[in-house]
Design a protein that fits this description.
It comes from Mucuna pruriens. CIPK serine-threonine protein kinases interact with CBL proteins. Binding of a CBL protein to the regulatory NAF domain of CIPK protein lead to the activation of the kinase in a calcium-dependent manner. Keywords: ATP-binding, Kinase, Nucleotide-binding, Serine/threonine-protein kinase, Transferase. The protein is of the alpha+beta class and 234 residues long. A 6-stranded mixed beta sheet has the order 1-5-6-4-3-2. Helix 7 packs antiparallel against helix 9. It contains 11 helices and 6 strands.
């Protein structure tokens, strides 16, 4: 399937029925619900290819002041073409909803997979981590680097390394290195850069993670250095 340009359609939104705005897709079950909308599995009528359709309510987006963030997410997906990044196929805008038609990842969310298993063995975690490094895409405050939440000047690669370090920790430990129900407390923990390395981690993992989760972005490990690390290359 190829990427289609953004389409704008007049008329009512979800109240008029999804079939009116998605005639090329046979809608299936809802597989995810978030603060801005939901995600449904669908099948292309002509090709029978399965896709995931993110349905975002435009009023909620505006009320939560998320318009720019959604716009950037769509633009990034449109520009990025990588085997380890979800593909964007089509965007349909109506007065009420925005429909984002994307590649369907049948294995589901990585977060849910790790939670279900408790934690991953290092060989499996390494395989997933290598793919993540190959195509980085993070965006949650739980994965945010200290310089981001402190609103300091920063560049992309250093921030990506921090986020990947958090993900690697989660893959191997089944928990996040920095966690708190209250966001101010969470930010303080991130800025402090203090976390516990469980005893079950291998020496290689215990060496790699702290170098990625270094609070000082200048001293933080780089992507090329990660690729050269013995744990990454096993």
């Amino acid at each position: 399937m190829i990427y289609f340009p953004i389409s704008k359609m007049d008329g009512a939104g979800s109240g008029a029925g999804l079939d009116m705005f998605l005639p090329n897709y046979k809608l299936g079950k809802t597989v995810g619900i978030g603060s801005l909308g939901k995600v449904k599995i669908a099948e292309h009528v002509l090709t029978a290819q399965k896709v995931a359709i993110k349905i975002l309510n435009r009023r909620k987006i505006k009320n939560m002041e998320m318009e720019e963030k959604v716009k950037v997410e769509i633009e990034n997906l449109r520009l990025l073409m990588h085997p380890h990044i979800i593909k964007l196929y089509e965007v349909i805008e109506t007065p009420i909803d925005t429909y984002i038609v994307m590649e369907y990842a049948k294995s589901g969310e990585l977060f849910d997979y790790v939670v279900e298993k408790g934690r991953l063995e290092e060989d499996e975690a390494r395989n997933i981590f290598q793919q993540i490094i190959s195509g980085v895409d993070c965006g949650s405050c739980y994965y945010a680097a200290p310089e981001v939440i402190s609103e300091k000047l920063y560049t992309g690669p250093e921030v990506d390394v921090w986020s990947c370090g958090v993900i690697l920790y989660f893959l191997l430990c089944g928990t996040l290195p920095f966690d708190d129900e209250k966001i101010p407390n969470l930010f303080n923990k991130i800025k402090g850069g203090i976390f516990i390395l469980p005893s079950h981690l291998s020496p290689g993992a215990r060496d790699l993670i702290p170098k990625m989760l270094c609070v000082d972005p200048v001293k933080r490990m780089t992507i090329p250095e990660i690729r050269q690390h013995p744990w990454f290359q096993i």
